[in-house]
Structure formats: structure tokens, C-alpha cells
Amino acid sequence: MSDSFTPRSVLVTGGAGFIGSNFIRYFLERYPGTRLTNLDILTYAGNLRNLKGVDSQPGYCFVRGDVCDGDLVASILSREKVDAVVHFAAESHVDRSILGPEVFVRTNVLGTQVLLEESRKHWVSKAVEDFRFLQVSTDEVYGSLGPSGLFTESTPLAANSPYSASKAGADLLVRAYRETYGFPTLNTRCSNNYGPYQFPEKLIPLMIHNIIAEKPLPVYGDGLNVRDWLHVMDHSRAVDTVLRSGQPGGVYNVGGNNEWKNIDIVNLVCDLLDARLARVAGTNRSLVTFVKDRPGHDRRYAIDASRMRADLGWEPSYTFERGIAETIDWYLANQEWVREVTSGAYRDYYEKMYGGRA
Ligand code: NAD
Ligand code: TYD
Questions:
Q1: Active site residue 139
Q2: Quick one: average pLDDT of 113-139?
Q3: Which atom of ligand 2 lies nearest, measured to the CA of 301?
Q4: Which fold would CATH assign to domain 9-353?
Q5: pTM over 0.85
């Protein structure tokens, strides 16, 4: 598949978070020297530590700021002559969205609209030859599946949590900008990601963290909810592929064809860590604690990613066996990172690197 678009100056939003930082690592290793500006406000989930090593590459630049700040976004677009926006910034945790939906609407809906509007103005001004706006979204916008079937790109949006509703709102704005203004948008919708640098509030890193600390492993409801898991590097490669070769206006489902019941994942992580921590087989499984279900808990997600395969030649490269083993080893080797992100101590790194300035 040949590329139809070559980005020269990319604005990545949310690049200090889990997927954004892995994407930047992937992108700058693959295309060294490409101009890349990372706009991130550094919430609890954004850690510049995640970018250690890549942040010294020529062409990389960090701006601390809010995607809802139109003047700031406009100034970056024009100063950097940005020709591609890859929009990861979001509030991303379903449980937090149940406790406090407002910030999800602000960041995920309003933030996307501000970025779209400033990007559209920049595109209309013909400051750059060609332009792409890539909205990184989630399979959760489609709602919940029964025991069979897959989400395709034409499955109607039926979000059930405040998080997924805010992502669906953003996706509809992206569609509206395409339909109304002919703005060259792209929209990926990916299944659950796992891998290094994921904040230990999401299922897999939380379980690893609690097992190491010998704490209870909270499994919601009956543990039989199903998610489709994809390694974050396969997602990063998919986003890059869509950016370069996707059809403007296109929506692309991204998934691992890798469905797991939550309890089976938790048991697998328990067993792998029994071996690594030299604990007697079965020790970690005894930490599993079934707790009250998440309200509105989607039963099953599963993705049909055949458009990615057929049109763009993308498929996952990680087997789950390899990906989960490497992820567990990464967390074991990076306990200091876990301590820092959970205590907020990584902010010292920001002070050191940037003198606390935006
Ligand atoms: P994350 O929570 O780890 O990171 C989000 C980043 O956005 C953080 O660095 C945070 O500081 C930044 N941010 C938040 N509000 C901001 C604002 N107002 N202005 C600028 N930056 C802001 O999230 P993630 O898991 O890396 O997810 C990234 C994107 O991918 C999200 O859009 C999410 O919806 C989507 N996605 C995630 C998954 C998953 O499994 N994690 C799956 C599919 C899609
Ligand atoms: P999560 O990682 O929060 O991702 P999402 O809700 O976006 O799919 O949760 C993955 C699955 O694991 C989901 O079905 C909820 C469940 N879960 C637990 O059972 N216990 C937990 O402590 C967490 C965080 C999640």
C-alpha cells in the first residue's frame, strides 16, 4: 500500500498519556527528524516521564496547554506549519466518567470542536499544501454487543457511559466537519489497548500493580464481560497507517481479534506473575475479589477490523502471549515509574525539564 499523504509537521495532542506517548516513540523512531509538537495539559494521566529518551530528538517540541484553548492551538498550527493533527487528548477512564462526567464533555467534546475549528481555519488559509485531522476514538462508541457479532464501521453509535458518549459526540463533530466543510478528517475506533506506560487505573496495569503489592484484585460483577485487546504498538502503527493512507472522511475500526473475558485475563496475569515472583502456583488467584458491578457496564466489545486489513494492509503484529508477557516484564522492571505516576512525583521531572513553564 503506497502512502497518499506524507506529514511534515504533526501536532499530537495528549502525547504524554499512555497511547500518545507510545505513538510518539513509534513515530519519531520510524521517521526521525519529522517535526512533532506534543500539546498536553498534563492531567494525572499525562507524564512527561513516558517520553524520556525521545524528548531530546530534533524536531520534537512539548507545549503544556489545553486543547480547549483556541488561541494556543491556532498559534501552534501557524508557527509550526502543522499539516497533520493526531488527536489523542482525552479523559479516558470510564469509572472516572461515572463519578464526574463534566470534565469528559469539556475535554472530549469541546476540546475536539476547538481543535477541529482552529484546524479548519488553518486549512482554509492554505498555509500548508495538504492537511489531515485524525481523531483517535474507541469501539466503545458503538455500545455493547451480545454473545455474538462484531462492530463494523456502519454499526450505529450507541454509547452507554459518559466517557463513550463524549467520544461519540466528538466523532460526530468530526463527521460534521467533513460533511459540512469538506474538511479532510480521519477517524479510528480502536479496541482496548494494553502495553507499557498505561496508568495503573485500567484493568491490566491495575491487576499487575495490585498483585505485586499483594492487594485484592477487584473484578466487577461476574467477571464475564468481554473486551478485545490490542497491543499499543499495533494501535500506534494503525494510526500512522491511517494518517498516511486512509481515505479522507474515512472511519477505520482497529482491533486485535483477541477477545477475552475479564476473569480469564485476570487469572492469566495472576499465573504469569506467580512464576515471575516465585510464588506458589495459585497464590495470586486467591487475591481475586468480585465486587459490585460498574453501572451500565458494557457486556462485550469485539471489532471487525477487516477494512484496515483489506484497504490499508494493516494487521496486528503482536501475539497476545508475547504482548502480555512483555507488558508484565515492563511493569516489573519499571516499579519506580509506577511509584512516580501514582504519587505525582513525576511532576519533578517536568520542573527539571521545562522549569515548570508552559
Ligand atoms: P490517557 O488518559 O492515558 O492520556 C490522555 C492524555 O491526554 C494525558 O496525557 C492527558 O494529560 C491529556 N489531556 C487530558 N485533557 C487534556 C486537555 N484538556 N488538553 C490537553 N491534553 C489533555 O489516555 P489513553 O489511554 O492514552 O487514550 C488516548 C486516546 O485514545 C483517547 O482519546 C482515548 O479515548 C483513545 N482510546 C483509548 C483506548 C484505551 O484502551 N486506552 C482505546 C481506544 C481509544
Ligand atoms: P478498563 O480497563 O477500565 O477499560 P474499559 O472500561 O474502557 O473497557 O476495564 C476493562 C474491563 O475490566 C471492563 O469490563 C471493566 C473491568 N474492570 C474490572 O473488572 N476491575 C477493575 O478494577 C477495572 C479497572 C476494570
A1: yes
A2: 97
A3: 8
A4: Rossmann fold (3.40.50)
A5: yes
